[in-house]
Design a protein that fits this description.
The complex is a heterodimer of chains A (233) and B (409).
Chain A (H helix, E strand, L loop, with lengths): L3 E12 L2 E13 L4 E5 L6 H8 L7 E6 L2 E2 L5 H11 E4 L11 H12 L3 H14 L15 H13 L5 E5 L7 H16 L3 E6 L2 H4 L4 E6 L2 E7 L8
Parallel strand pairs in A: 3-8, 3-9, 6-7, 7-8
Antiparallel strand pairs in A: 1-2, 1-4, 4-5, 9-10
Helix pairs in contact in A: 3-4, 3-5, 4-5, 5-6
Chain B lengths: L2 H10 L3 H41 L2 E5 L2 H4 L9 H12 L4 E12 L4 E9 L4 H4 L6 E4 L9 E5 H7 L6 E7 L5 E12 L4 H6 E5 H7 L8 E4 L7 H8 L9 E5 H4 L1 H39 L1 H10 L3 H37 L6 H7 L12 H18 L1 H6 L5 H6 L2
Parallel strand pairs in B: 3-8, 5-7
Antiparallel strand pairs in B: 1-9, 1-10, 2-3, 2-6, 2-9, 4-7, 5-8, 6-7
Classes of the chains: A alpha/beta (233), B alpha+beta (409).
Chain lengths: 233, 409
């Protein structure tokens, strides 16, 4: 399910009367279990590509297939179902629901999926333990540090056992230590078979990837396999 | 409570001051509506009772032209016998024959015009409230012949007290000169000055003798257990009566057409005012929920990104509104019920109310009616309109797209 096929994707935006190229004929394939970083400067198109892979945004032309689903052929409702069941998202700004505790934030997505209360409760315990947040379950996001909030966001992303996690600048708001811990968590989850695609311009993050795709002005300028250079904390 | 309900409840208290302002507006509106509607229903009940109670009754048998012309000769033959027959037909004792005329009443010092009624002393207390309102002396009894009970204002005007004689001059049914002397045995204080100014009750037999009525009367007054029993009661009675071409059976609506018109007109203007009040609350809810949705655009964008469907988020907004409206409904109804319960015992009065109230045959203290309709109609309308007002903010969510929504500040 987690293999991604992007074929000749194009996307432009209108901004202040100017046409900005988001994606310029990008083609890319990602296999199950890969750990890929999309890198490039701001405006290079990495977030646009990530959003297109997650079915959050649709390209102007081209074709995207995630597993068996051709995203460019799906309706809004089908895309929502696809995201809910198959994709975990981690955002730069954590984006937790501020009035729900850590436990409830994680549980919320599972409830949308229709998971029954008992299973939900058990799974929440598991994933919070997995991301190292035992004992902090009942805290509200405002009572957690940035690193802890991002861990809750990761727990929320993996709670439904997706095969694919898309992360957009996940370490941008974290200090070095928290960023290293988060990347260590990603690597550990990736080793259990979850495909990771991370959009980042943080060189520390790129060091964890086994494949680095570089973008510039909406075009893919390189796509290289690499040996991870960063140490997992 | 599931996460959705918990989320909705907590969202309400993110901006507790704003929520309380909106809920407060609902509570105020609900208390006001409960009070106003209960007062209105109570006053209508009192208007009907006070208008029909003293004289008209729930229905009457009359000469077909008497209602419009009110002439002495437009009378009901064998009035007492007909009243007795009706008592048997409907199985109620509260039926009384009456004859009505106008005369000049004179005491030793003064003279005033009065409406003099010949009544059946045994049955009049069953159809009229006036016999129960005797402030001095007593009401007529079956053994009385030339006794009279007059209104308090008339007694004051005539400077007559108990035991005084009053002379009546008028014209009889046949156009002859009618004159008689009666002794005051009771003075009635109905609380309605217009009524007390011209009221004089004498025994029917004496009236028939003085006014050359023979066995005729002018009205067979019928009073049912309550206003709701009138229509079925008359429907049952009508087929049993053989009134011929000269007599008619009229219900209170036909006897006092102005009463229903006054109620209808008062209701129309009051409903309009209530409508404006409810609309103001609905706009307050619209404003609160729209603000709430707009400031959470980013959060909703994240929910959409995670795979939540817009309909589910709209339901969340709907649930928040339902909770807010339910809070306003419950506190408002409880508050309104407490106010109404207190005033239904203590009565409602404000200075200067007497004059206005007397125009509608109301006393100077009104007692709100405690009823399910009065307690729930207004608050339920506010509830429904509040939920309806939240539709627009909820529908806006269907226009959101995850990526632009998540970029919203």
């Amino acid at each position: 399910m987690s293999s991604i096929r992007c074929n000749d994707l194009c996307k432009t935006f209108e901004q202040g009367g100017e046409t900005i190229v988001g994606l310029d004929h990008v083609s890319l394939s990602i296999e199950e279990g890969e750990f890929v970083c999309l890198s490039g400067p701001s405006g290079s198109g990495k977030t646009t590509l990530l959003n297109a892979m997650g079915g959050l945004d649709t390209p102007d032309s081209g074709r995207i297939q995630v597993g068996d689903a051709v995203l460019t052929d799906l309706s809004r409702g089908q895309l929502a179902d696809m995201r809910l069941q198959n994709v975990g998202f981690v955002f730069q700004a954590y984006n937790l629901v501020p009035v729900l505790s850590a436990r409830e934030n994680v549980e919320f997505v599972m409830q949308v999926q229709g998971v029954d209360a008992r299973q939900r409760s058990q799974r929440v315990q598991e994933v919070l333990a997995e991301v190292g947040l035992e004992g902090l379950e009942s805290r509200l996001p405002a009572e957690l540090s940035g690193g802890q909030q991002q861990r809750v966001a990761v727990a929320r992303a993996i709670a439904s056992k997706p095969k694919l996690v898309l992360a957009d600048e996940p370490t941008a708001n974290l200090d070095t230590r928290s960023a290293a811990q988060l990347m260590g968590l990603f690597v550990s989850l990736n080793q259990r078979g979850i495909t990771f695609v991370i959009a980042t311009h943080d060189s520390r993050v790129m060091g964890y990837a086994r494949r680095l795709v570089k973008l510039q002005d909406g075009r893919m300028i390189s796509d290289e396999a690499q040996e991870p250079t960063a140490m997992v904390v | 409570m599931n996460v959705g309900s918990r989320l909705a409840w907590r969202n309400l208290w993110r901006h507790s001051r704003r929520t309380w302002l909106t809920v407060g507006a609902m509570i105020f509106c609900n208390v006001l509506l409960v009070f106003m509607i209960s007062l209105q229903l109570g006053s209508y009940g009192m208007m009907i009772d006070n208008s029909l109670g003293p004289f008209t009754g729930h229905a009457q048998i009359q000469h077909k032209d008497y209602l419009d012309d009110g002439k002495m000769r437009q009378s009901v033959p064998a009035a007492a016998a007909l009243a007795q027959q009706v008592r048997g037909d409907i199985g109620l004792e509260s039926v009384s024959a009456r004859a009505v005329g106008f005369a000049l009443a004179s005491s030793e010092e003064r003279s005033f015009g009065v409406q003099i009624s010949g009544v059946q002393a045994a049955y009049e207390p069953l159809v009229s409230t006036l016999p129960g309102l005797v402030a001095q002396g007593r009401y007529l009894s079956e053994s009385d012949n030339d006794a009279i009970v007059i209104g308090r204002v008339l007694a004051t005007n005539l400077r007559a007290t108990l035991g005084d004689e009053i002379t009546f001059l008028g014209s009889g049914r046949d156009g002859s000169f009618a004159a008689g002397v009666a002794t005051v045995v009771g003075i009635v204080d109905s609380g309605i000055d217009d009524l007390d100014r011209a009221m004089a009750h004498v025994p029917l037999g004496w009236f028939q003798e003085v006014f050359a009525m023979g066995d005729h009367g002018h009205q067979i007054v019928i009073r049912f257990a309550d206003i709701d029993a009138v229509t079925p009661g008359l429907a049952a009675l009508a087929p049993q009566l053989d009134l011929g071409d000269e007599l008619v059976l009229l219900d209170w609506d036909a006897l006092l057409p102005g009463l229903r018109q006054a109620i209808t007109s008062d209701m129309a203007s009051a409903w309009m005012m209530y409508g404006v009040l409810v609309l103001l609350v609905a706009f307050s809810v619209l404003n609160t929920q729209l603000m709430s949705v707009l400031e959470r655009t980013r959060e909703f964008g994240v929910m959409l990104a995670l795979g939540m469907k817009p309909s589910r988020i709209a339901r969340l907004v709907g649930m928040e509104t339902l909770m807010m409206a339910a809070l306003g409904l419950s506190i408002g109804v409880l508050g309104g019920a407490a106010v109404v319960a207190y005033l239904s015992v203590a009565g409602f009065h404000f200075p200067g109310m007497e004059e206005m109230a007397s125009q509608f045959n109301l006393p100077d203290r009104i007692y709100p009616e405690v009823s399910a309709l009065g307690l729930l109609w207004g608050p339920l309308t506010v509830f429904v309109m509040s939920v309806f007002a939240a539709l627009y903010p909820a529908l806006r969510i269907f226009r959101l797209r995850p990526v632009p929504a998540m970029r919203a500040v």
